[in-house]
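Incident review: delayed structure delivery

Summary: a single-chain prediction request sat in the queue longer than the usual turnaround. Root cause was a stuck worker, restarted by the on-call engineer. No data loss occurred. The affected request and its eventual output are reproduced below so the record is complete for anyone auditing the incident later.

Affected input:
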Amino acid sequence: QVQLVESGGDLVQPGGSLRLSCAASESIFNIALMGWYRQAPGKQRELVATITRGGTTNYADSVKGRFTISRDNAKNTVYLQMNNLKPADTANYYCTMNHHYWGQGTQVTVSS
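Output delivered after worker restart:
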């Protein structure tokens, strides 16, 4: 059973930055797709960003130009660099491996 552990969530002011990490319990080198989703209270879980084994990235329109997803296969870790955060980014952020395994989430709150 693969485990994904997210970290890096915090309370941050609008315009601030955070970097989320997702550590996998096994190698992600051959994993086709890693990604980040988020879910705000009362809303459905939504895509934030994905990255393929080859490094191709995909972003939700709402985060393009502000968020960057990356993967470090040597560390079995996926990152989400979030800049210029907005209150609308407040949510629990989840990591996924091939949309099959999911982490428990890390809370991001953007508020002044």
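Verification: The chain has a mean pLDDT of 96.
Action items: add queue-age alerting; document worker restart procedure.
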